[in-house]
From TrEMBL:
This is Threonine synthase. It comes from the Bacteria. Keywords: Lyase, Pyridoxal phosphate. Belongs to the threonine synthase family. One of its GO terms (biological process) is threonine biosynthetic process. The modification N6-(pyridoxal phosphate)lysine is found at K107. Transmembrane segments: none annotated. Residues 2-79 form the Threonine synthase N-terminal domain. Its EC number is 4.2.3.1.
Length: 432
């Protein structure tokens, strides 16, 4: 499979090159030249396949002979070796729980897949690869965990000071070894700007082999299709395809769902549920894309003012606004609505949501009020304990802390602080 740059001024590349480069030289996101179609029979008979078979079948055309099948099967198996259940919450709403992985968030899937692909590709390199990532919360932990002790790979993570939860922070600042965490005195967009400048810096890229592990990387984006298929496998009423609601920030997760839909996955409608960062809800009502400075919310992994992956969604709909608007809605949910939802769903259904999942639940419920014949699921993108600082005061109860979290809470913080100054970052990277 070849991947072209969405800015159309860089050569097409292989999966390996797209994974290593992250972003194209013209700063465009890579996009596959062909969207592989899966036959209707595959979706109809999906119960007959194991999760490993489903995942392998979906990802194989994107990689073809660049990774031998046996190794790719192994990578897929390791990527998905935890539960991804679809659980009923209320009569017409289900929760796709994506938080049973090592860092308790959906980003484990993409990070685990990518780290293993990159590990394979750099195995015989003499030059070290440096993975540079900006995180608004969960990416950092997932990437740090996925890449921890992968040979030949250094990881540098930038995160906004004071804007990630304490559990999130601990997950990325306590590993050490090949993982460096930098606490930036700014917001997520500042972090992302620094990363973008580093990738565009010719001189830096001559001295270092830099790559990204943000959701723009194809090796993180593509495997996120897996769990939409697993949800379909668990979906009972196959005659009524689900409305799928995805709590969205950088729009990589929902974009993977739309990609699976483009390959034939039955879907009634997509909802991108946003917090107060509502560039896409505004775009869908005005047709004007106006990036904004991110504002801080209690669903901080979605505090994004210029969602990178949205261009891929436009490409999937061939830049036709009306076909896009028919298949995708987007709404903005306030912190107040988010808190009320956590409380109500806990009291009425004994189901504990994290703030991101709550944004999704609320948006889906509202949609189903207007479309009462439909049913749907939302993606529960993180375990509520990751956001206990928000959730506990709302439910007036303590959330039991899982063993894995308790272990890291007492560990020493190994991060270093930095102003959002590109020259400082560059000096750090060159001295690593
Ligand atoms: C990253 C993240 C999101 C947003 O996902 P995108 O792919 O950036 O849209 C939502 N919820 C949680 C918990 C996250 O970590």
């Amino acid at each position: 499979m070849k991947y072209y740059s969405l800015n159309k001024s860089a050569p097409s590349v292989s999966f390996k090159e797209a994974t290593i480069k992250g972003l194209a030289p013209d700063k465009g996101l890579y996009f596959p030249e062909i969207i592989p179609a899966q036959p209707a029979a595959f979706f109809k008979d999906i119960q007959n396949y194991s999760n490993e078979e489903i995942a392998f079948r979906i990802i194989e055309p994107y990689i073809a002979d660049e990774i031998p099948n046996e190794i790719l099967k192994q990578i897929v198996t390791e990527t998905i070796n935890f539960d991804i259940p679809l659980k009923p919450v209320s009569d017409n709403v289900f929760s796709l729980e994506l938080y049973h992985g090592p860092t308790l968030a959906f980003k484990d899937i993409g990070a685990r897949f990518m780290s293993r692909c990159l590990g394979y590709f750099v195995k015989n390199n003499d030059k070290k690869v440096t993975v540079l990532v900006a995180t608004s919360g969960d990416t950092g932990g997932a990437v740090a965990n996925g890449f921890f002790n992968v040979d030949g790979v250094e990881v540098v993570i930038l995160y906004p000071s004071g804007k990630v939860s304490s559990v999130q922070e601990k997950q990325l600042v306590t590993l050490g070894n090949n993982i460096s965490a930098i606490e930036i005195n700014g917001n997520f967009d500042d972090c992302q700007q620094l990363v973008k400048r580093a990738f565009a810096d010719k001189q830096l890229n001559e001295s270092l082999f830099l790559t990204s592990a943000n959701s723009i990387n194809v090796a993180r984006w593509l495997p996120q299709q897996f769990y939409y298929l697993f949800a379909w496998k668990q979906w009972i009423d196959k005659n009524t395809p689900p409305v799928i609601c995805v709590p969205s920030g950088n729009f990589g997760n929902i974009c993977a769902g739309i990609l699976a839909y483009a390959s034939g996955l039955p879907v009634q409608h997509f909802i991108a549920a946003c917090n107060s960062n509502k560039v896409i809800p505004d775009f869908l009502s005005t047709q004007i894309y106006q990036p904004k400075k991110a504002v801080a919310t209690i669903s901080n992994a979605m505090d994004v003012g210029d969602p990178s992956n949205f261009v891929r969604i436009l490409e999937l709909f061939h830049h036709k606004f009306h076909s896009l608007a028919k298949m995708l809605s987007s709404v903005s949910i306030s912190d107040e609505e988010t808190r009320t939802t956590i409380s109500q769903v806990y009291n009425e259904h004994k189901y504990l949501l994290d703030p991101h999942g709550a944004v999704g639940y609320f948006a889906l419920k509202n949609y189903l009020k207007i479309h009462p014949d439909n049913k749907g699921y939302f993606l529960e993108t993180a375990h509520p304990v990751k956001f206990f600082d928000v959730v506990e005061p709302v439910i007036h109860e303590q959330i039991p802390i899982p063993e894995s979290v308790r272990n890291i809470l007492g560990k020493e913080k190994l991060s270093i602080s930095m102003e959002p100054d590109y020259e400082d970052l560059k000096a750090f990277l060159l001295n690593k």
